Amino acid sequence: MFYLSYLRSELLRRKGRTILTLLGLALGVALVIVISALSRGLNQAQKTALNPLSSIGTDLTVTAEGGIGGGAFANRIIETDLSKLGKPGQHFVHDTFSAGTQPAFAQSQAKTVAKLPGVAKISTGLTLTVQHQEGKVPKITATFKTAAKKYQIQGQTQPSAADFAKMAACIQKLQAKSGQSGTGGTPSQGSGGLTGGGGSNGGAFRSCMPASMRRFRQTFTAPGQIHTQQVNTPQTDIKTSTFTIGGVDTSQSGMGLITPSQVTKGAFLSTKGGLEALVADSYASSHKLKVGSALNLNSTKFKVVGIVKAPLGGQSADVYIPLAQLQKLAGQKNQINVVLVRASKSSAVSQLQKEIEKALPRAQVASSQDVAKEISGSLKDASNLSKSLGLALSIIAIATAFLLAALLTLSSITKRVREIGTLRAIGWTRRLVIRQIAGESFAQGIAGGVLGVALGAAAAACIDAFGPTLSASSPVGDSVRGPQGTAFGLGQTLTHTATSQVSLKAPLAFSLILIGFALALAGGLLAGAIGSLRAARLRPADALRQVE
Amino acid sequence: MPAPLYELRGAAKFFQLGGATIRAVDGVDLTLDAEEFVAIEGPSGSGKTTLLQLLGALDKPSSGEVHFEGRDLVTLSDGELAELRLRSFGFIFQQFNLLSTLTALQNVEAGLAPLGIAAGELRERSLAMLAEVGLRDRSSHLPSQLSGGEQQRVAIARALSASPRVVLADEPTGNLDSRSGADIITLLTGLASKHGTTIIVATHDSELAAKAPRRLNMHDGLLVGDDNVKDARPNVKRKR
């Protein structure tokens, strides 16, 4: 077909212009795709992190009013009686459970909620704060070992009369030998005479001293001693840490403090509710726990069966175990502190919220919006940004692509006016000329679309691969006062912040690719329409009159 | 007696240029019969090109009538005019006006394509036409790879490909040296007589004009001379 080969020749033999147009279109399309993919990614991240309730299949949470002072654990002082932990040197684990943000209430209360109209399903949970102590049982006594000590003493013994006589004789003998007249005289009693009396003959005098008097300096070493005494504060290697623990109602699938959809590694708790635990990924990494690790809670060994990405919000915890197990461990039989409610209709949530508040006047009912308000962090910022900027950016990208394509087409039309005049002169109808030029633009649109989709997909893949990490945080256990007067006076605060790390993804969808492609086509067609209308307006004689 | 090929009555074409009216063709009366070789002479700006465009249905007269084979071109629709240009007229330009991205063969095909004939036949007819102008072996060359004379020969092949009644040539040798210009005229007239095509050439080349049996002279938009005196009406319109 001649027209197609004409089209091909036109596009291939004006490579520079064609490539420029294609790149313009492709960049626009790629931008639209990447921006849409990013906002999709942000939305998904939001759904998991910023909308914690819906991720655990819940519309509303019901907790008891009161906070501090209302629950069974109120103002409880954590005391650890070291003497009861075992023999000194033995390894021990001691966990003290205390209420988190919400006071506990009887499990039977949940039934009141379940009976309300508009409730599809309920689940219960108990979230507590754990003061975990671990280490060796200390000895209540302490041992000191003193080092050996050296003592120096100067000792002198009183010389006897016989010693003096001996000395005098000895000195005289020595003096006679040397032929010198005695100058020292007779040694007199007293220490002064003994040392100073030698004069120039001191050497002779010293040699005549009795042996006992020569050892006048002596050193003696006292042996080391061990003292044992009672100490006031035991010195131990006990480590204390605080974490939150959630008791999960495993009877309800897809709904609870944590649900199977949050499991990132391993498996969910079995419905039997055995000695199994799930660990939040952040807690797992900081405590070097993995699937299969053992978790010792008050000497009950739980097996870590899965790692979870805990949803943010008031109900998140570091460790999850079956509800019944937690109630047993904490001595809180049939006690819960949260009822999770799923409404039968999403439109009825606010109505249901009022119903529950009416039925349980002392209850606090929170919806997902209430929870989301508590969340902060870069993810929230990014999602706010994407909400306000995403649309604007998309529009700018589309407009840029369109404008570029249209301008390039128009400039090429201007350059081709004489060609169009020639075509008209050799018998081409207006329609044929329009078709030809629109066809070129259309072909460029398709090629630009393909290129743009490829570019966009590649960029999205890059974001997936090296995507930045966004975080979202919410306060957990914020109103809990740190336990006062613990055995070690550590006064640890229980407030901490749950943070969820979300790696930013740019997921592509087929629809997204289609939209990008359609945009390129529309851009091409728009440019083609503008160009060909301009071409069609030209009268052949005028077109021919144009000088290149 | 059949209608003459062309009959012009008071045909005029005015242009507005910056507020001033340019009377490119200022009332021309003319009758042309088929199988003539007509040269329109005159200096630049005398209105030759505009008259040629009126004859080739590239432009409509501002006033007066242009009859082709008995039909008033002013009354015809855009589509009918395009049809006339396709089947009845062939154009040759001073600048050759080949489509720069198309090969010699494709350029000839472009003049036949709107006829809607099959691709194979289109190609065959175009190649035959190229052979007639002696460029069969250059059919796959782009215009930029051809000399001026060769480009004009491609243009002739394109103009004659649909076997038109009239070939309208505007300064066909204007961009060629005298030798290739002469060759082009020989080729054009030879082919025209072979195909029974009327040739109307606008030129200020008196050597070329001398070859034409009928020579018209234009000055300031008026027909001031006509060899064929018996056909010419006294053209007494005065310049304002």
Description:
The complex is a heterodimer of chains A (548) and B (240). With 548 residues, chain A is an alpha+beta fold. Among the domains of chain A are: 180 residues, no CATH class; 202 residues, no CATH class. Chain A contains 17 helices and 19 strands. In chain A, the strands form 5 sheets. In chain A, strands 1, 2, 4, 9, 10, 11, 12, 13, 14, 16 and 17 form an 11-stranded mixed beta sheet that branches. In chain A, β12 and β13 form a beta hairpin. In chain A, α2 packs antiparallel against α16 and α15 packs antiparallel against α16. The longest helix of chain A has 38 residues. Chain A is elongated, with a radius of gyration of 46 Å. Helix content of chain B is 32%, strand content 27%. The termini of chain B are far apart. Chain B contains 7 helices and 10 strands. The C terminus of chain B is likely disordered. Chain B is of the alpha/beta class and 240 residues long. In chain B, the strands form 2 sheets. Chain B has a 6-stranded mixed beta sheet with strand order 6-7-8-3-9-10, sandwiched between helices. A 4-stranded antiparallel beta sheet of chain B has the order 2-1-4-5, with helices on one face. Chain B has a single domain, classed as 3-Layer(aba) Sandwich (Rossmann fold), CATH 3.40.50.300. In chain B, β9 and β10 form a beta hairpin. The chains are: A alpha+beta (548), B alpha/beta (240). The interface between A and B is medium-sized, with 26 and 34 residues.
Number of strands of chain B: 10
For the biggest β-sheet of chain B, the strand order reads 6-7-8-3-9-10
What's the Cα radius of gyration of chain A? 46 Å
The largest inter-chain interface, given as chain pair and residues per side, is: A-B, 26 and 34 residues
Could you tell me the radius of gyration of chain B in angstroms? 18 Å
Helical amount of chain B = 25-40%
Structural class of chain B: alpha/beta
**Main sheet of chain B, how many strands, which sense, barrel?**
6 strands, mixed
Helix content range of the residues of chain A, please? 40-55%
Number of E strands of chain A: 19
Q: What's the number of domains of chain B?
A: 1
Low-confidence stretches of chain A: 67-75, 181-200, 477-495
Percentage of β-strand residues of chain A: 15-25%
